[in-house]
UniProtKB/TrEMBL annotation:
DHFR domain segment(s): 4-186
Protein name listed in UniProt: dihydrofolate reductase
Biochemical pathway: Cofactor biosynthesis; tetrahydrofolate biosynthesis; 5,6,7,8-tetrahydrofolate from 7,8-dihydrofolate: step 1/1
Any GO BP annotation: one-carbon metabolic process
Family assignment from sequence similarity: Belongs to the dihydrofolate reductase family.
The EC number(s) this enzyme carries: 1.5.1.3
Annotated gene: dhfr
């Protein structure tokens, strides 16, 4: 069965996902939102396997050093410049398709779900790829200054799911910031 590609992202109303190498709402912490990210990306559906997180080099370095690599997940960093994985990363791939080949070959016995966690160009490539794709989007209901953005989610290519297992539907609020979890699934041609 072909592998489902997942992406997870938190976005401001203008689709902003980052500012100066941090989350737009930095230094405010959204602990429950982060716990949702960790649960979704770190919980495999198959016992004895691990999920894979794929990220660009800037996303890797935006993670505080003490939290790298993301625990209980196989961390793949994409870079065309690096010759070896950044310190702490498990694998290095030159591009998205190389990372997917690595997962389907060398990591096939240990990899379960695949999660794209940023940045913008990687989200764009994943969203435009073929096969089954799911977008786990946290809609932050407050605008912050952003310099990095999520590509538009095309509703002729994706549909909003009414619900998804383990994804809360009710409005969330932390530190005065409201947000909602949404899940989009690609429409098969």
């Amino acid at each position: 069965m072909p592998r489902v590609l997942n992406a997870i992202v938190a976005v401001c109303p203008d689709r902003g996902i980052g500012n100066k190498g941090n989350l737009p709402w930095h230094p405010i912490r959204l602990s429950k939102e982060f716990a949702h990210f960790r649960k979704m990306t770190a919980t495999p559906s198959v016992k004895g396997k691990q999920n894979v997180v794929i990220m660009g080099k800037k996303t890797w370095y935006s993670i505080p050093e003490k939290n790298r690599p993301l625990s209980n997940r196989i961390n793949i960093v994409l870079s065309r410049e690096c010759k070896v994985p950044p310190a702490g990363a498990h694998y290095l791939a030159s591009d998205f398709s190389s990372a997917l080949r690595l997962i389907d070959t060398e990591l096939a016995d240990q990899a379960d779900q695949v999660w794209v966690i940023g940045g913008s160009s990687l989200y764009k490539e994943m969203m435009g790829s073929t096969g089954m794709r799911r977008l786990f989007v946290t809609q932050i209901l407050k605008q912050f200054e952003c310099d990095t953005f999520l590509p538009e989610i095309s509703l002729d290519k994706y549909r909003l799911l009414p619900e998804f297992p383990d994804v809360p539907q009710e409005l969330q609020e932390e530190n005065g910031i409201q947000y909602r979890f949404k899940v989009y699934e690609s429409i098969q041609e």
